[in-house]
Design a protein that fits this description.
Layout (H helix, E strand, L loop, with lengths): L2 H12 L10 E5 L2 E4 L4 E4 L2 H4 L8 H11 L14 H10 L4 E6 L2 H17 L5 E5 L8 H6 L16 E4 L4 H10 L4 E6 L2 E2 L5 E2 L2 H14 L2 E5 L23 E4 L10 E6 L19 H16 L2 H22 L3 E7 L2 E6 L3 H10 L2 E2 L1 E3 L3 E4 L7 H19 L4
Parallel strand pairs: 3-15, 5-6, 5-7, 7-10, 10-11
Antiparallel strand pairs: 1-2, 2-3, 4-12, 8-9, 11-12, 13-14, 14-17, 16-17
Helix pairs in contact: 3-9, 4-9, 10-12
Length: 401
């Protein structure tokens, strides 16, 4: 029994079956991954916008290796020398404020929710408004904030204090605030909805929302776990709207695959989460922060954002050609390399066929393909991946599958 056969047996017998998995990936480099049978794939998933700089980036691997030989973990009861420098770098490139470090997107969003509750406690405010079709995580609180009922099935009752309203609809949001009796502490939304089908917020809506929150003394919180770290051509998607949130969360691609999350609270809010009010055992370890520092350095020096915008325009142009060619393709939308292709039928079937042909791609919602290639992908690899999708759609149209 070889290693991979043994691993497959262990998977069946000892790993909780919470994921639908079909192949075992064992190696990655740049825009490519290989499975346990040696088959090569173009990766248009990036671990769901985690490896935004591709797999096994040399500079990040080097930073992790170097730090692992020095200091891996130290309790947050003590300072480490890298965490403050990472906080400074994040603030300099986004929202002026203070940073809390954690491990994941759900934990970052949970932290923002706790911050909003603590901020609103003396004001009698505790309700958080989120958007329909949103996704904010799998903890009980972030699940209650998530605007898709299917994720909550079997985990009822919901945590109290969350209301969902339609996305890009100021009238519905204002009505919900009024109906709450002035108990809304915060509004949380994704500037571009990911799981909901790659739906960008409208510019006018975002500007009105910022003004409205200022008038009503409501915190505006942006979930940038999926749309952040360059995915839309800006380091954070909200920077496309010329406004600023009061809080912003991030994770996924912050460490380009090494687990790290964070949220930033605007400096004007003062000190809300003080000593003992919130914590994370593994938040902001020297090793995690080293990975994130290396990631940000690559963004700074390697023209990643420029390539993202350039390749994003090229990808949308090529994908719109598929829309003309195939009736199954209903819409192409998105920003940068955060692109959704809406289909007239379930997108999962196209994902399965694409995988057989050597392209990894996933769904957003039920009927949308989610295009998340590495932000530093080359035009030739991007073209090859879209060509594979084209061949898959030909087979579907000709019923030759």
């Amino acid at each position: 029994m070889n290693r991979y056969t043994e691993s497959l047996e262990a998977q069946k017998n000892f790993v909780m079956p919470t994921y639908s998995q079909s192949i075992m990936l064992v190696e990655g480099k740049g825009s490519f991954v290989w499975d346990s049978n040696g088959k090569k794939y173009i990766d248009f998933t990036c671990g769901i916008s985690v490896c935004n700089l591709g797999h096994s980036h040399k500079a990040i691997s080097k930073a992790i290796s170097k730090q692992s030989k020095k200091l891996v973990h130290v309790s947050n009861l003590y300072m480490n020398d890298i965490q403050p420098l990472l906080a400074k770098k994040l603030v300099e490139n986004s929202l002026d404020g203070t940073v809390f470090f954690c491990n994941s997107g759900a934990e970052a969003n949970e932290g923002m929710i706790k911050f909003a509750r603590k901020w609103g406690n003396s004001k009698g405010k505790y309700i958080v408004i989120s958007m329909e079709n949103s996704f904010h995580g799998r903890t009980l609180a972030t699940l209650s904030a998530t605007g898709r009922d299917k994720y909550r099935k079997g985990f009822e009752p919901r945590v109290d204090g969350f209301i969902q309203v339609p996305f890009n609809d100021m009238e519905s949001l204002a009505q919900a605030v009024e109906n709450s009796g002035n108990k809304v502490a915060a509004i949380i939304l994704e500037p571009v909805q990911g799981e909901g089908g790659i739906i960008p917020a409208e510019i006018e809506y975002m500007k009105k929302l910022r003004t409205y929150c200022d008038e009503k003394e409501i915190l505006l919180m942006f979930d940038e776990v999926q749309s952040g770290m360059g995915r839309t051509g800006k380091l954070f998607a909200y920077q496309n709207y010329d406004i600023e949130p009061d809080l912003i969360s991030m994770a996924k691609a912050l460490g380009n695959g090494y687990p790290i999350g964070a949220f930033i609270a605007s400096r004007k809010l003062g000190e809300i989460l003080t000593s003992g009010t919130h914590a994370s055992t593994f938040g902001g370890t020297p090793l995690a922060c080293s990975a994130a520092m290396a990631t940000l350095e690559i963004f700074k020096h390697d023209k990643v954002l420029e390539n993202c915008l350039k390749m994003g325009e090229y990808a949308k142009k090529q994908l719109n050609k598929l829309k003309v060619r195939f009736p199954i393709v209903k819409d192409v939308r998105g920003v940068g390399l955060m692109i959704g292709v809406e289909l007239a039928e379930k997108a999962q079937d196209v994902c399965k066929l694409s995988q057989k042909e050597g392209l990894l791609i996933i769904t957003a919602g039920e009927n949308t393909l989610r295009f998340y290639p590495p932000l530093n992908i080359s035009k030739s690899v991007l073209r090859k991946g879209i060509s594979i999708l084209n061949q898959v759609l030909i087979k579907i149209q000709n019923n030759s599958i």
